[in-house]
Design goal:
This protein is of the alpha+beta class and 465 residues long. The chain has 18 helices and 22 strands. The strands form 6 sheets. It has a 7-stranded mixed sheet, with helices on both faces. Strands 12-2-1-16-22 form a 5-stranded parallel sheet, covered by helices on one side. A 3-stranded antiparallel sheet has the order 5-11-6, with helices on one face.
């Protein structure tokens, strides 16, 4: 009688768990799937905690509805009835000492029409954006370029500092200057390569037509928190879950792989869905080329401070506040937060349960902020909230979540790193990789990499009948 196929999934975040779900569907009940997670909980950046008795996400808080991957996975897991949408409140931005509404029609802060950024930029800044269409067409080199540097040259510093960097900082934890054009805005790069006469013309072509009433919802989440996705995925995958069990070594064998964790086991295939430092360590012995490529991935860290205020406390009317770097409070002290989400305004289901908000701290290269104690982070965030949002009451509960090295920085060299990873891993039979550093940091992008990795691995193993 043939032995069952043994698969090891290293990493219990959304990528690893999605891979386990897909492998179960592809390989059937005969396969034995083990998920190794180095921490004591599943979910990775999907983490839900109770703050003042209200379930709140303190990592990823939403998924894009325009991409199918997360919507389809949620339905596959039987959680579709838990999906809720963001409310009608719009975000604002704090720039040059003023809080104004975030322009509605921009492509990650880049307008198709200079009039869209009037009120956020100075008159001179608006003129510089308007004049961009008169400049010679953009000629992109074969390699990627700094998004911030290109936009500064064409559209001016104000647009980058006041809009583009605050918007991208919430996604990638880095300034526009640290990010690559093709790495983070591939559609814009493609439009320029296809002959768009200017950056603003390219952005205009990428914007959907205006819709009355705001159009369809953009973001969704789950009532009760996104960690439910991780818990349900582990159940649907019918996987053996090893929590608090880091994998210490991967070694190739004639028949597959040897995985050393709490014990050493032989498996037929491996999916590696871990952050870059762990992948680099595990691949060093079997693929120095892959390990080197993972080692070139730069990481950003951040902290999320979630605050609950007494019932009846009035938060600002907006869904959140993006903050230009270098802003100051009214007393002249530096603003610590890079963004605030007025959670009770943004998500009506949470607003019905309590008065909750969260602030994020830390940009790429700002390690000193993440060395602050929890008490210092809370004190700084509350000072920001009092000064910028006008909320001065004492909180009834606070939670600090640190994400050390939690976000891969999609810099100008990122595409070359990913290509090198893909090439090296292609030479490792029955080993596949997935995760946020490959094709985008959002939940749908992570799911897509996991789905693809599982399909590739399933095609290489034979399940006995």
């Amino acid at each position: 009688m043939s032995s069952p196929v043994e698969i090891a999934v290293v990493g219990g975040g959304i990528s690893g768990l999605t891979a386990a779900v897909r492998l179960r569907k592809l390989l059937g009940p005969a396969a034995s799937i083990t998920v190794y997670e180095s921490t004591t909980r599943l979910g990775g950046k999907l983490r839900t905690v109770e703050v003042a008795g209200v379930p709140v996400d303190v990592g990823a808080e939403a998924f894009l509805l325009r991409r199918p991957e997360a919507v389809e996975l949620v339905a596959e897991l039987g959680l579709q009835d838990e999906v809720v949408h963001a409310g009608p409140a719009s975000p604002s931005v704090r720039a040059s000492g003023r809080t104004v509404a975030l322009p509605r029609r921009t492509f990650m802060g880049i307008p198709g029409d200079a009039a869209e950024v009037d009120g956020v930029l100075s008159a001179k800044g608006v003129e510089q954006v308007a004049a961009e269409r008169t400049l010679p067409p953009v000629r992109l080199p074969a390699h990627d370029v700094s998004l911030g540097r290109l936009l500064r040259q064409r559209l001016g510093d104000e647009l980058v500092d006041r809009l583009v960097s605050p918007l991208l900082g919430g996604v990638y934890g880095a300034r526009a200057d640290d990010l690559g054009l093709r790495a983070v805005l591939p559609a814009l790069a493609k439009a320029l390569e296809n002959g768009a006469g200017s950056i603003t013309a390219a952005a205009a072509g990428l914007l959907p037509p205006p819709q009355a009433g705001g159009g369809s919802p953009v973001f969704g989440t789950l009532r009760g928190g996104l960690q439910q996705v991780a818990e349900r995925a582990a159940h649907v995958a019918d996987a053996r879950v090893e929590l608090g069990t880091p994998v210490r070594e991967l070694r190739r064998t004639a028949a597959g792989w040897q995985v050393t964790a709490a014990e050493t086991r032989s498996v037929d295939g491996v999916i590696l869905a871990v952050p870059a430092p762990a992948a680099r360590r595990l691949l060093a012995g079997c693929s120095p080329e892959a390990a080197d490529a993972y080692g070139r991935v730069e990481l950003a860290s951040m902290a999320v401070v979630t605050v609950a205020f007494p019932p009846g406390t009035e938060l600002p009317e907006s869904s959140g506040l993006l903050i230009e770097e270098g802003q100051r409070r009214s007393d002249g002290s530096a603003v610590l937060s890079k963004a605030m989400t007025f959670t009770s305004r943004k998500w009506p289901h949470i607003g019905a349960a309590g008065v909750i908000m969260r602030a994020s701290v830390g940009r790429f290269g700002q390690a000193e902020q993440l060395r602050m104690t929890d008490d210092a982070l809370i004190e700084g965030v509350l000072a920001d909230v009092a000064d910028l949002a006008g909320v001065t009451v004492e909180p009834i509960d606070v939670h600090v979540q640190r994400w050390g090295g939690g976000l891969p920085c999609y810099g100008p060299e990122h595409g070359e790193c990913v290509a090198a990873i893909d090439k090296a891993v292609a030479g490792l039979p029955r080993l596949e990789v997935a995760g946020a550093l490959l094709d985008g940091v959002g939940i749908p992008a992570c799911i897509a990499t996991a789905d693809a990795a599982a399909r590739r691995l399933a095609s290489q193993v034979t399940v006995p009948h």
